[in-house]
Amino acid sequence: GTQIRSVKNEVFFPPTPLQGKVRKVLSRYPGIEEISPDFITLLSHAAQERLKNILERLSVVTEHKMEFIKN
Amino acid sequence: QQSSQSASDHGQILSKQKLQELAREVDPTLQLDEELEELILAVADDFIESSVNAACHLAKHRKSNILEAKDLLLHLERNYNMWTPGYGTDELRT
To answer: Which domain holds residue A40?
Structure first.
């Protein structure tokens, strides 16, 4: 196939527990039986991005708090 | 047997150690106390659960029995304005 990713596709979340979590949700949807491997990788990237976003916001809040204490 | 640092011991999908690594990457001065760690991990857990639920709805809507990356991608784009290149479509976006 065509190579579309130029960097190694490393996942942040350990795949086995993540897959277990997805399977647990999937059990509520009887018609869906399979998970594409790309799904788990994308889910890991998205959750990592979400965590990064939260941490960035926390960092800004902490910075403001420190400024307030200094002044 | 897994160590007490393991994520799965606590029903979490990510270890606190990994979270701390990510926090250091974002801001080396950022320190998370235990309560905050638990809270952030719970948010991540919620995010994963709700995203998988939404993707399942979309896969059902496509009348497919396979959960695909494009189902998740659509949810992420619509609700989080998140776009991850290389997923979901057969052709590259230019």
So the answer is: 36-71
